[in-house]
């Protein structure tokens, strides 16, 4: 694998994984503080529209700007990227403030979409309060996103990774402290605690932005040195610049809001479908499991795909612009191989250990277990969509990203209510899976047609990955069955011990088989050699 792709992916993967794991593990104390699935549903009612707004407000900025700057840097036209950066800061400030005003004013409308039945636990006014609390983050995040894209376009992934982690730490610290103080010290309501928790997004964004400022002033000297090497042959006007950025950004907007759009469809249709089959009183708790509890666990393997997408776009763009299609194909092969090698076992493991895993993070729940078991494999689809969409950006066929996503959304929208009525909460997961499968199939078809790329050359490695996952699944399933007789999955500590033993056993089997078959060496050869050399030096 190319050193730039490995290094950039490793840095962003590390940063994204730390951020995602923090975002996962904070739910354990948070869930205990706010008091269960219905309160988690209220949190989701506020965060889903915010996620969509933040994606639109940032206009796909990190990836779009990174692609634009990488393109002109490859041509040694460094001044073009700097010109974009300066004007973009003002534009993102205006965009963010406008998005904040719109979300704040239309909060009652979004709340009414979420609460269609009077039998539900929360009122429209309470959901409105939560939505308005989270809207303040829109003022800062677009500005921060532009800075991240600027660094990524210069193949510098550390600022994005570090700022993401710091942002998450600050957000979680404020969220947990604020929610605890409101409920357990001030004796306040769950609605007020959730409002404080969602406002934490604004606090986190401030800290993330401060980190990016520090990196910028630290590296300004180096960035100015690049300007001295500028060829100055490209005369790009602001109008032409933003026209090109918009063309890049629109597909990124759709990719960024893919999961939130699916969640929005659930927000609008789930409670209505449950009410139509006489389960309105159970809808809030079930929605909390679907859009908060299980989604937090399932999204972890997807963080790898996010890191790959962010690193892949500027690198593939550079190779594609240079006309080096052989390098492009090698990059795509390596990306798919590593992506599937890491995401499939993660998804399989979550599905197999759904019962004790849900108990560890939340509480023992039959519905939570069933939904998590069905939802876990969808993580592979989330990851594949992110990466195939990123590839389409890299080969300048981003228009098809919009088409494939809209087609998948149409499938989800069409099937969601019928499947919920048939299978209740799990029906929403089935509709999501079918929508993503449709989008991925379309993306792969376009990649094959325009880039001449096929998964066939790596079919053998994919088959080995599937085979080794099957072997791992047999071991984990058998071990979990035995341990469940000795360690009850209904209690936190016994469930945690069960998960740890099974996860370690599964990982040993998977990596041992991969190593023996040479798959591990084929995928991570250069990286493994580097680790071995470092270990030998330490021993010496």
From TrEMBL:
Keyword hit for Transmembrane helix: yes
Highest taxon of the lineage: Bacteria
Compartments it resides in: Cell membrane
Keyword DNA repair found: no
Annotated GO biological process: cell division
UniProt xrefs under Pfam families: Polysacc_synt
Membrane topology: Multi-pass membrane protein
InterPro entries: PG_synth_SpoVB, Poly_Biosynth_Transport, Polysacc_synth
TM ranges: 9-28, 48-69, 89-110, 130-151, 172-193, 199-217, 238-262, 297-317, 338-362, 374-395, 402-423, 429-450, 462-485, 491-513
Keywords: Cell cycle, Cell division, Cell membrane, Membrane, Transmembrane, Transmembrane helix
CDD domains: MATE_SpoVB_like
CC annotations in GO: plasma membrane
Protein name: Cell division protein
Top-level taxonomy: Bacteria, Bacillati, Bacillota, Bacilli, Bacillales
């Amino acid at each position: 694998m190319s050193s730039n792709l490995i290094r950039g992916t490793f840095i962003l993967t590390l940063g994204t994984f730390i951020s995602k794991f923090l975002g996962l593990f904070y739910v354990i104390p948070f869930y205990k503080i706010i008091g269960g699935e219905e309160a988690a549903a209220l949190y989701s009612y506020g965060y889903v529209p915010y996620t969509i707004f933040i994606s639109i407000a940032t206009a796909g900025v990190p990836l779009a700007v990174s692609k634009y700057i990488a393109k002109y840097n490859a041509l040694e036209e460094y001044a073009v990227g700097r010109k974009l950066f300066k004007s973009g800061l003002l534009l993102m400030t205006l965009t963010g403030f406008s998005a904040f005003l719109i979300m704040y004013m239309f909060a009652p409308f979004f709340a009414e979409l979420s609460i269609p039945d009077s039998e539900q636990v929360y009122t429209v006014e309470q959901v409105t309060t939560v939505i308005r609390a989270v809207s303040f983050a829109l003022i800062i995040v677009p500005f921060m996103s532009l800075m991240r894209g600027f660094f990524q376009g210069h193949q510098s992934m550390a600022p994005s990774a570090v700022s993401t982690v710091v942002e998450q730490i600050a957000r979680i610290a404020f969220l947990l402290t604020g929610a605890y103080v409101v409920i357990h010290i001030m004796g306040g309501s769950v609605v007020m605690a959730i409002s404080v928790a969602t406002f934490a997004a604004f606090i986190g964004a401030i800290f993330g932005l401060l980190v990016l400022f520090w990196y910028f002033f630290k590296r300004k000297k180096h960035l100015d040195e690049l300007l001295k090497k500028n060829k100055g042959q490209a005369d790009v006007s602001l109008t032409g610049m933003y026209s090109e950025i918009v063309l890049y950004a629109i597909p990124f907007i759709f990719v960024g809001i893919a999961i939130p759009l699916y969640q929005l469809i659930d927000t609008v249709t789930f409670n209505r479908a449950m009410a139509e089959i006489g389960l309105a009183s159970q809808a809030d708790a079930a929605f909390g499991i679907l859009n908060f509890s299980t989604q937090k666990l399932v999204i972890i393997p997807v963080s790898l795909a996010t890191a790959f997408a962010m690193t892949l776009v500027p690198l593939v763009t550079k190779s594609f612009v240079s006309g080096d299609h052989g390098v492009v194909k090698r990059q795509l092969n390596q990306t798919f191989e590593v992506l599937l090698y890491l995401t499939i076992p993660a998804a399989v493991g979550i599905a197999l250990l759904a019962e004790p895993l849900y108990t560890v993070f939340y509480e023992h729940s039959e519905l939570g277990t069933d939904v998590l078991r069905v939802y876990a494999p969808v993580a592979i689809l989330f990851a594949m969509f992110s990466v195939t969409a990123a590839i389409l950006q890299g080969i300048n066929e981003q228009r098809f990203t919009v088409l494939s996503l809209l087609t998948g959304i149409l499938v989800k929208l069409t099937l969601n209510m019928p499947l919920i009525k048939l299978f209740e909460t799990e029906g929403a997961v089935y509709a999501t899976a079918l929508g993503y499968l449709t989008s991925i199939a379309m993306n792969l078809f376009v990649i094959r047609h325009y880039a001449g790329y096929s998964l066939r050359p790596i079919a053998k490695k994919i088959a080995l990955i599937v085979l080794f996952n099957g072997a791992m699944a047999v071991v984990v399933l058998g071990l979990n069955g035995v341990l469940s007789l000795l360690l009850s999955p209904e209690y936190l500590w016994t469930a945690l011990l069960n998960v740890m033993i099974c996860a370690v056993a599964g990982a040993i089997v998977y990596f041992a088989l991969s190593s023996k078959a040479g798959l591990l060496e084929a995928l991570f050869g250069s990286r493994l050699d580097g680790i071995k050399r470092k270990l030998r030096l330490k021993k010496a």
